[in-house]
Amino acid sequence: MDITNLSKYSTLSLEARKKLIELLLQQDRDIRLIFQRAADDLAKEIRRLEREGQTSQIPVLLDAMLAESAMSIEDALSELFRSGLVISVEAGMHQSKQATLRILNKAKIDWKPIERVYFRKHAAAVEAMQTRVIKGLTLSDRIWGQSRVARQSMGAIIQEAIAAGEHPYRVAEMLEGFVRNGAKSLVSQYPDMIARLEGNIPMDMCYESLRLARTEMAAAFGEAAMQAAEINPSNEGIRWSTSNGGNTCDKCKEIASKDNGLGPGVYRLHEMPEYPAHPNCLCTLSEVVEELDSFVDRLIEWQANPLTHQDIEKWYQTVYKTGEF
Ligand SMILES: [Zn+2]
Fold this sequence. Notes:
The chain is mainly α. It has 2 domains: 3-208, no CATH class; 234-323, no CATH class. It is built from 11 helices and 3 strands; from the N terminus they run ααααααααβαββαα. It has helices at residues 3-51, 57-106, 112-131, 139-163, 168-181, 184-187, 191-197, 207-231, 250-257, 292-304, 310-318; strands at residues 235-241, 266-267, 284-289. The protein has a 3-stranded antiparallel β-sheet. Helix 1 (3-51) runs antiparallel to helix 5, helix 2 (57-106) runs antiparallel to helix 4 (139-163) and helix 2 runs parallel beside helix 8 (207-231). The longest helix has 50 residues, at 57-106. Zinc ion binds next to loops.
């Protein structure tokens, strides 16, 4: 693995990284909007009831209103995670897939079977991410948990505000302020009420969902990068790099500098530490491959005589052939 090799693939790995980062930024905005929309709908309903002289109905209807709100959050988050996993798995496979198709093209080997293998692995990786269980919870359980947090905290604010004798319009404003600016923004205006609510409402209603999305998308990227690397016959390992942010934690620094004989931070697939190393981990993974021209030469030799390169023959039998049918 030398510098020329690196430069050949860095574009693909940067493209993959860019896809993931853009997704995360878009999801951050979308998640905030999902919670804002839910709080705004509740606020609107409270104002409507007041306007129509039904203020006394607010406590009666509250449970049903909150249930509807939680359901809309759950639906919107589920869709966001579903479409996000498709994109992050694609990003995780990008470098390996493009590199492999190029190599096969150069050696004049039909690349369609291998494209089918990538396609199947993509679907399997998305499925695996959606169904994996962590601490007894599936992804949909955790998304449901997020909608429940929103339901409970919005419910607690509304109930406390009504009990404190606040006008429904103020209650609506509090909800809108809380979802946008967090619990702290309410402290100056309603210090007693916020003190009573302490521990029952999160400082930022979106925080856990934002964190969950980043962690899940990074994990999908990592899972996809591993699965894809297995399909690339020139794969030598995966490099774990810290971000350039400068505030990398010690755990990630250690992972990115450990030398397993392939250079700092480069791991054989079965030796890879769990990625991401922690929530909000900004480290990135890229594939380390055999030098392109010499690998293409080996492929051409192997085509003439499969006994010359047993590693390629093994890849042909166990990977390539499975895409032929
Ligand atoms: Zn990290």
